[in-house]
Write a structure and sequence with these properties.
This protein has 4 helices and 2 strands. By secondary structure, the chain is mainly alpha-helical. It has a domain of 90 residues. The chain has a two-stranded antiparallel sheet. Strand 1 and strand 2 form a beta hairpin. It starts with a strand and ends in a 5-residue tail after the last helix.
């Protein structure tokens, strides 16, 4: 609803010979039947809000077999690290429970368990990579993709050190 302005001039007489005038401005809403006086349209300027630009899209992950399984690709070190983590924990658990060293465990049917575990873990690791899921996409907090790589590297070294120590010692470590 537009408001109209009525200007009323009221003379103020002073003792001087030159009269001065003051202007009073009042606004009132038009009554029914009175014409509405339109004011020039002014749109208020919206406040400027600094919105950060959206993050750049993640680079497209290659799903080619040769890229995923390349020497510097995402799969080989992760799969070997995961197998080493499982192998180290399993070897230590069996050694603590039965007293068998790593070489005895391998000779007593450990090869079949290793092959089965390797196939299942490799397939489980490759399926998301072939679907285009990045290795870094789900990592946050303590469980990052870098932490997994380092844990896998330490497990690989631990498994080799365990086998070497038992070979030199000639018996189980524990």
């Amino acid at each position: 609803m537009a408001a109209s302005s009525i200007f009323m001039a009221t003379p103020i007489t002073l003792l001087k010979k030159t009269p001065t005038f003051s202007v009073k401005c009042m606004s009132q809403t038009p009554q029914s039947g009175e014409p509405e006086i339109s004011k020039p349209a002014t749109t208020p300027t919206p406040p400027k809000i600094n919105i950060p630009p959206p993050p750049p899209p993640a680079p497209k992950v290659s799903t080619k077999f040769s890229d995923v399984l390349a020497f510097s690709g995402p799969a080989p070190e992760r799969i070997n690290g995961r197998l080493a983590m499982i192998g180290f924990v399993s070897a230590m658990a069996v050694e603590l429970s039965s007293g068998q060293d790593v070489f005895t465990q391998i000779g007593n049917g450990g090869v079949a368990v290793f092959v089965g575990t390797s196939v299942v873990l490799t397939l489980a690791s490759l399926v998301p990579l072939f679907k285009g899921v990045s290795v870094q996409s789900k990592s946050s907090g303590l469980m990052t993709s870098d932490a997994e790589l380092w844990n896998g590297r330490v497990a690989m070294l631990g498994l080799v050190a365990l086998a070497f120590t038992e070979y030199v010692k000639g018996s189980a470590l524990v």
